[in-house]
Task: inverse folding
């Protein structure tokens, strides 16, 4: 049986002010607070902040977001566009804040930019504004998401629909077509095979890092199993945690009962989104999923994160482009039209709170209907961990124990945190690669089900 969640209903008058502010984003006007969903791993580490020189977080918030995001992408890609030029003074002011990140105090998200999530953001930022936190002293996850919310507000995204990252995402899709054309004739023959789930999981994890030279496009059906096993074996060397067998067993159980609902918490657009759609196609075609719910961002975030419009535009552009990619994209369009795939843009996916603080309606939706939540990418993974530096060998199941449904994380490492990785493997990675925690060359496939006993690995 599924382990019941431990919920404590507390009258508002009995809850401390700071605790309420911490949770207010999930209240939505309710008169009680549902909480006590914390990892069973203890103690809870402090959140990562960005004020330690030499760390990835420090470099990100003191330099990278200003130079590589605001200046290069927001300003560089959009100069001359009317929606950008109309607010250029505000963008430059934001750039000035980031130029003095260590001394500039955070403020609330300005209401002038509009958006349906303003009240939630006010609750998120209140303790940091009250404390006088700067861009570097506040939690890293808070300031990163806050930056993209500020950009969306400045550009009046909810009235203009202007995506400052559209050019970058378009370039990402165009560069992906060749890889997708190469994949299509290899994966289409095994799309409906339950035995191919490990392959599609690996494609969704590694994307164009997979070595397709090991899998000739002309491989016949008799040789295809050995071909994609060779691809998987080649990718295995960079895996620091691998629960693929447990995921395959869960998917097989879903097929045996006629399929379930799978939630796919999407990360990047471009080729990564295409590999996510390959996985979703396989889950439906093989009978593991009767429906895949794509959980996308509700405003432009992290430059390349996928919006609902990106899913639809990627499919349309691939269909129009012809070639083998179009064969896949036509299948994906049919999945949307039939309702086998649905798109959902809940505010929570573009906000910094830990996943264990998800709003009650979302928690209950997953608890009551989701057979598996697939969490893609590094930023989403950081939220699964609360953006906290757990000991790297802390069992994943002890950190993810709060999930209301079975969860699978597919992550290439791009931040200085993690869990569920055996020390001999992390020692090997560190010896081979001094930047192993942040360069995306190493990955994990981690799974936990609330119906399973505590992890032993």
Result:
């Amino acid at each position: 049986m599924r382990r019941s969640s431990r919920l404590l209903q507390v009258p508002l008058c009995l809850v401390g002010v700071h605790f309420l502010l911490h949770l207010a984003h999930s209240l939505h006007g309710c008169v009680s607070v549902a909480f006590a969903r914390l990892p069973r791993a203890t103690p809870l580490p402090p959140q990562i902040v960005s004020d330690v020189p030499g760390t990835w977080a420090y470099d990100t918030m003191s330099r990278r977001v200003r130079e590589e995001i605001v200046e290069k992408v927001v300003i560089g890609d959009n100069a001359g566009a009317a929606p950008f030029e109309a607010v250029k003074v505000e963008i430059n002011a934001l750039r000035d804040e980031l130029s003095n990140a260590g001394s500039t105090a955070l403020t609330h998200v300005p209401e002038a930019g509009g958006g349906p999530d303003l009240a939630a953001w006010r609750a998120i930022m209140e303790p940091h504004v009250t404390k006088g936190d700067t861009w570097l002293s506040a939690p890293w996850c808070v300031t990163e998401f806050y930056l993209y919310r500020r950009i969306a507000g400045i550009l009046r995204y909810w009235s203009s629909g202007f995506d400052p990252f559209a050019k970058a995402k378009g370039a990402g899709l165009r560069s992906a077509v060749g890889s997708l054309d190469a994949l299509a004739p290899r994966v289409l023959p095994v799309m409906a095979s339950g035995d191919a789930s490990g392959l599609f999981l690996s494609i969704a994890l590694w994307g164009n890092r997979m070595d397709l030279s090991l899998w000739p496009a002309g491989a016949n059906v008799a040789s295809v199993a050995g071909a994609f096993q060779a691809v998987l074996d080649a990718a295995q060397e960079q895996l620091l945690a691998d629960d693929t067998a447990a995921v395959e067993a869960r998917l097989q159980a879903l097929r045996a009962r006629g399929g379930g609902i799978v939630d796919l918490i999407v990360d990047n657009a471009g080729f990564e989104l295409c590999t996510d759609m390959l996985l979703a196609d396989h889950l439906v075609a093989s009978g593991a999923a009767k429906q895949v719910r794509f959980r996308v961002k509700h405003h432009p975030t992290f430059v390349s994160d996928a919006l609902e419009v990106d899913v639809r535009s990627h499919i349309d552009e691939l269909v129009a482009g012809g070639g083998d990619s179009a064969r896949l994209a036509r299948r994906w369009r049919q999945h949307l039209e039939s309702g086998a795939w649905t798109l959902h843009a809940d505010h929570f996916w573009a906000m910094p709170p830990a996943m264990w603080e998800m709003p009650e309606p979302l928690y209950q939706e997953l608890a009551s209907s989701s057979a598996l939540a697939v969490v893609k990418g590094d930023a989403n993974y950081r939220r699964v961990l609360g953006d906290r530096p757990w000991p790297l060998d802390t069992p994943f199941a002890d950190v993810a124990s709060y999930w209301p449904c079975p969860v699978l994380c597919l992550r290439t490492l791009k931040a200085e945190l993690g869990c569920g990785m055996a020390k001999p493997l992390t020692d090997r990675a560190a010896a081979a690669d001094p930047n192993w925690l942040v360069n995306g060359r190493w990955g994990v496939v981690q799974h936990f089900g609330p119906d399973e006993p505590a992890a032993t690995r």
Summary: DSSP finds 18 helices and nine strands in the chain.
